[in-house]
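Journal club prep — side note

Before the paper discussion, L.F. wants everyone to see what a predicted structure for a comparable chain looks like in token form. Sequence:
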Amino acid sequence: MKKSILRSKIIQIFIKHKLSRKHSEICADYLIKAELVEAKSHGLTRLKMYCDRIKKKLINPRPNIKIKKISSSISYINADNSIGFVSSDIGVSQAIKNAKKTGIGLVAIKKSGHFGLSSFYAEQAVKKNLIVFCFTNAPPALAPYGARKSLFGTNPICFGAPTGKVPFILDTSTSIINRGKIRHAHKFGKKIPYGVALNKFGQITTNAKEALKGSQLPIANFKGSGLAWMVDILSGVLTGSSHGGKTKDPFDDFSGPQNVGHLFITIDPKIFIGKKYIKEIKKNIRLVKKLPKAKGFSSILYPGERKNKLYKKNLNRDISVPKKILTEMDELNVV
């Protein structure tokens, strides 16, 4: 399907679910971009979930989002249970403004929801020549190291830095694979890789449905567990949002709003070394890329390069939409 047609259809669906045109356009752009970078776990497959939560009044389609100024560098946002794309788009924009004024921006968001891929917010800051950290918490999926029950989300860690060329953007979940990939596999009846999740009995499973009822495995054992805990503190405890396993699953838990927390930290790289920053980051990347290549590698890529290549490759191509999602879209469009 042509991108312009798909975008119009998604916007129409969100408008029918009472979002403003501006907010509908923001949501459509994020979902389509996920498809363009081939992160299908965070793309169209989630459209029905957002709409279901709006219909059940768990996402506020017309939120009164309030920005509280703590200082010239710090802002605190009450998202009023808005869809996560909208509050986070506002949040990262505010963090950018703060950093441009003072050299550093710190923005916390409470009462939000799932916001898609962290890298999209990081890109906005990097395009303004800022270094950025993005944190968000998620529903229980990981068992803390030493525990038998899931508590932490797959809580992603995202870091971005300008390079003078393709942005350096590391966006990684603290689980071996993100939960969205397991959701996507379950939706389309596919298996998941071996060794990434356990069933409810604590046994390794490749069955996506069993994995969703069990727990996912963290990266690097106790280190990944510790990082997930760190993100839970930064985006949950610090922001006044849900934490400690209290974040509601957007697909399965309709008992109330998610109350997800987000934290954005933006830094002007010129504050310490001025105009030398770009020269030094280029030197840093050049040193890594000149290293001898491991067997099977023709080049050494830094985080963000692969996703950028996918985006450019797919930008002018039609987007393949599975029949199952087309059917969902037709049903959502008659609300």
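L.F.'s comment for the group: The chain has twelve helices and nine strands. Keep this in mind when we get to the figures.
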